[in-house]
Amino acid sequence: MVREPHAGQKGETVGVAAIVVEDLHKCYDSIVALRGVSFEVADGEVFALLGPNGAGKTTTIEILEGLRARDSGRVEILGFDPADRTTSRMMRERLGIVLQECAVEPFLTVREVLARHAAFYPTPIPVDQVIAAVGLTEKADARVKSLSGGQQRRLDVGLGIVGRPDVIFLDEPTTGFDPAARRDAWELVRALRSHGATVLLTTHYMDEAEALADRLAIIADGAIVAEGTPASLGQRDVGSVRIRFGLPDGLAIADLPIAAVTVDGYVEIETTDEVGVLHRLTGWALSSGHKLPGLTVERASLEDVYLRLTRSAVLR
Amino acid sequence: MTTVASSRGGRGDLALIVSEIGYEQRSFWRNPFAAAFSVGFSVVFLLLLGLSGNSGHIDFLGNVRTVQYYVPGFVAYGIMATCFNVLAITIVSRREMGLLKRLRLSPLPAGIYLAALLANAFIVCVLQVAVLLLIGRIAYDVALPSDLVALVVAVLIGVVTFTALGIAASTLIPNQEAAGPILSIIFFVLLYLSGLWFPLKSDSALARISAWFPVRHFMSATFAPYDPRPGTNPFAWHDLLVLGLWCAAAIAIALRRFRWEPRRT
Q1: What is the total count of domains within chain B?
Q2: Does the beta carbon of A68 lie under 8 angstroms from any beta carbon of chain B?
Q3: In chain B, at which end, N or C, are there fewer CB atoms within 10 A of the end residue's CB?
Q4: Angstrom distance (rounded) from CA B223 to CA B201
C-alpha cells in the first residue's frame, strides 16, 4: 500500500475528519467483499474512490450510506455511525447522496420534486437556486417523466444538494453526461467544495478524479491498494518516465547510444534518470546530425497507475 | 409510527405528513393508469352495467334489483383496485426505479412516508365510494342502506385488508414489467369467480372456489347491508373474519419481505 503525505491531511494542521473508515470488513456468504478498508476524508476535502467493478467500491459506499451492515470495523460520518438507527435522521439531514440510477417520482414537476425533498431538511437551499445551479430553469415546471436522461440526472444531483449537506456522496455522478453537462457538474462540485462541503466521489473516469479530487484512493479486491493526491498516486511523480521517438532514417536500434526497445514502430526508453538519458540522447543526435522525429517524454498517466495497481491486485 | 430524532424537532412532522399526502395525491391523479384503473373503471363499469341491468332482478338474492347488487359490488371493486392492484404496482415500480431507496437515504422517516402512502389510498377510496354511492342514488335510485354503519365497517375492513394484501403482493413480484400483468390476471379472474359481473349462487362450484379468496368475502360484506332477504345480518361477520385472517397473513408477509432497494437479478 502506498501512502503519500498530504498537506493538512492528518494530525494537527486541519481539524476533524468528516469521514472515517477504519478496518472495514464485509462478507457475503462465503465471498469476502471487503478485507480491511481504511481511509479518512478531511473536512472540506474532495476525495475520490476509484476501482473496477466488484472491487468493493459499492459495498463500501452502501455501508457508509447505512444501507448495508458491516461485519467489523469503524465508520463515522460527521461523528455519526451510519448503522445507528437512532441518529440516522440527524445524519441524513446533513448528508446529500447522488445515486447512479435516476430515481425521481415521474408525475411530479421538477419544482415539486425539489420542494418536496427540501421539506425533509432543516435548512434547505431555496428551490429556485437549486434549479438554476443544475441548469433546469427552463424545465422547472415540466413533469419529471418528460425530461431527457441527462436532465433527470441533473435533477438527481439537485436532490443531492437541496438539503445544504455538509457531506455529499456522488456515486458516478457524470455517467451518461455529454461533455458540456459533465463540465457543468464539475463546476458544481467545485462550487460545493468552495462552500465547505466534503465530497466523497466514486468514478470510472480518471480525468474526473484528476480534475476534482484533492486526494484519491484505489480499491481493488476488497482493499485500498493506493492512496494519495492525483499527482503523486502510485509514485507517478517519482517513478519512471517513458521517452519515445521515431527511429532516425537508415539506423538500426543497435546504433543508438542507449539501450531501447521498439513498440508500435517507435523507439521507447523507460528510465528514472530522464535528465541524464535525454542529455546523452540529444547530445548524440546533435553531434551526429540525426533527427529524433516525434520525441515525447511521458510520465505514467493516472490511468496507467490505476491499471497497474488494479491488475496486480487481481493477480495477487 | 417511528420517527427518530431530528435536529428540527418533532413539530415539523405533522406538516411533513400533510405535504407528503399532497404529493401522493398529485402523483396518483396525474398517473393515468392509477386513476383510470381504480376510479375510472369502477365508475364506467357501474354506469354501463347499471344501464344494461337497470330493470333486472336477481331471484336467488331475494329478488334484489340488479343495480342494487352492482352498487356495493363496484364499491368493493374500487377499493380493491385502489388498495391492492394500483398500490402494489406503484410500490413495485417505485422500488425497482430506485425511488424507495432514494427516500430511504433521505431524512424522511419511513413511518411518515408509509403513512402518507396509506392515507393517500384511503382518501382515494373515500372519494370513490362517495361518487359510486351518489351515482347509484341519482342514476338508479339505489338508496343508502338503512344500516349505514355496517357498510362503513365493511369498507374500512376492506381498505385495511386490501392495503395489506397490496403491500404483501408487491414483495412477491420481482419486477416492474411483471407487476401489471400478474396482478391484473389474478385480480380479474378472482373478480369473475366472485360474481362481480354475473352474480353467483353461494352453493355453485365457482362460489366454492372463490370462497377461499378474499375478493368474494369482501363483496359479500359490502352487499350484506343491501341484501333485501329477511333475516340477513347487515354485518357479515363470517366474511369480515375471513378478511381479517387474510389481513393478518398479508401483514406477516409484508413485515418479513418488504424491501426498499431494487431486486438485484
Answers
A1: 1
A2: no
A3: C
A4: 14
